[in-house]
Design goal:
Blueprint (H helix, E strand, L loop, with lengths): L4 E6 L3 H13 L3 E7 L3 H11 L2 E3 L13 E4 L6 H10 L3 E4 L7 H14 L3 E3 L7 H11 L6 E9 L3 H4 L9 H4 L3 H4 L1 H12 L2 E9 L10 E8 L4 E7 L7 E8 L2 E6 L6 E5 L7 E2 L10 H19 L7 H20 L3 E2 L1
Parallel strand pairs: 1-2, 1-4, 2-3, 4-5, 5-6, 7-10
Antiparallel strand pairs: 7-11, 8-9, 8-15, 9-10, 11-12, 12-13, 13-14
Helix pairs in contact: 1-10, 3-4, 4-11, 9-11
The chain binds nicotinamide-adenine-dinucleotide.
Pfam families: GFO_IDH_MocA, GFO_IDH_MocA_C3
Organism: Spongiactinospora rosea
GO molecular function: nucleotide binding
Length: 340
């Protein structure tokens, strides 16, 4: 493909404005041609900032030949339907996490894109966070020995959105769940990308924000196929800024990644290495960590289309995260461990 990849963007809410917009402003190998949101004022304001066209009905974009690809930044409950419409119309599609609410739908989208020869993936920004890549490099180089335990903790301040029954976030029919589907999507993708598949899991959840319909704390834990143990904890009732933390424990050492820690990624080599050392290439950037990695995901997706290369985030791994989410809710409901 010559020239920039031409995008239609659907959904111009919070994370579009904070993160995706950066990619279209930089316009490095991509261009926003039409931006779309139910909210006309938002669509027009965003379009004006980018020199794009505004629209309020995504169906107008389906047959628009000026567009090669769409970036879908929508509430969870419409991911499947809107992504399918665009794939059927022959557009490349990148969608925000979770790929879908339903695992069968995610598998269907991956198969449909492959059948049509289209580039499709989930914009899982975890893949573009330098500290995680540095962690994976160190683990693969054997620096901490065999991995015995992987722990993630994602904490967010969602009191306001969960407390507003008009918003999709706290409604079961809007989000498909709370922390397990929303924050868990990141951690389950990360586990798969870095450490492979899960063998079995058990999950529990709790709810503090009374007016919402979804869990706002959860722990999903179990064993990976590699034999390592894992635990994925998420909360939406932390008064602090959104934070992502990863610990990888190995037979010879430990790596701790924490978005708000400076330096953000430390490696401890052995039981007497109390001071540890920073992992190379992991700059302290707590406030841009998420937004820059999301924008990088869009740029990487455009690069894949332009060069006919596989996406950095394998679509199958995005779909796998949805399978894990489904099994985790099954475990919450039954109170029992679930094999994968
Ligand atoms: N990668 C990350 O770290 C990250 C962070 C935050 C949100 N997200 C994901 O991004 C997605 C959006 O989240 P958000 O917080 O920006 O939500 P939001 O509610 O702030 O924005 C969604 C926007 O979509 C618009 N919309 C809904 N349906 C539409 C349709 N059919 N056509 C046109 N516009 C439509 C709404 O008007 C709204 O402006 C979700 O999947 C969420 O999980 C990802």
């Amino acid at each position: 493909m010559s020239g920039p990849v031409r995008f239609g963007v659907v959904g111009l809410g919070e994370i579009y404005q904070l993160a995706h917009h950066l990619a279209y402003q930089r316009a490095d190998g991509l261009a926003a041609v039409v931006v779309c949101d139910f909210d006309q004022a938002v669509a027009e304001r965003t379009a004006a900032a980018l020199g794009a066209e505004a629209c309020t009905d995504h169906r107008r974009l389906l047959e628009d030949d000026r567009i090669d690809a769409v970036d879908l930044v929508l509430p969870h409950n419409v991911h499947y339907e809107v992504a399918r419409e665009f794939l059927e119309a022959g557009k490349h599609v990148v969608i925000e996490k979770p790929m879908t609410v339903d695992a069968a739908h995610a598998a269907e989208l991956v198969a449909l894109a492959a059948e049509k020869g289209l580039t499709f993936t989930v914009n899982e920004n975890t893949r573009f966070i330098p500290a995680y890549q540095a962690t994976l490099d160190a683990v693969n180089a054997g620096e901490i020995g065999d991995v015995t335990l992987v722990r993630t903790l994602i904490s967010g301040n969602e009191f306001e959105r969960l407390g507003n029954p008009k918003l999709w976030k706290g409604r079961q029919d809007g989000s498909g769940g709370g922390t397990i589907i929303d924050a868990g999507a990141h951690s389950f993708y990360l586990l798969k990308w870095m450490f492979g598949e899960i063998a079995s899991l058990r999950a529990l959840s709790e709810q503090l924000v009374g007016v919402s319909q979804v869990e706002d704390w959860s722990v999903v834990c179990g064993r990976m196929r590699s034999g390592a143990l894992f635990s994925v904890e998420s909360t939406f009732t932390s008064g602090g800024p959104w934070n992502e933390r990863l610990e990888v424990h190995g037979t010879k050492g430990l790596i701790v990644v924490d978005q708000h820690q400076n330096p953000p990624a430390m490696i401890f080599r052995g039981k007497r290495d109390h001071a540890g050392s920073p992992l190379p290439g992991t700059a302290y950037a707590p406030n841009t960590w998420k937004y820059e990695s999301i924008a990088a995901g869009i740029e990487s997706f455009a690069h894949s289309i332009a060069n006919g290369e596989p996406t950095a985030v394998a679509p199958e791994d995005g779909a796998y995260a949805v399978r894990v989410i489904e099994r985790a809710y099954e475990s919450v409901a039954t109170g029992r461990p679930v094999p994968l």
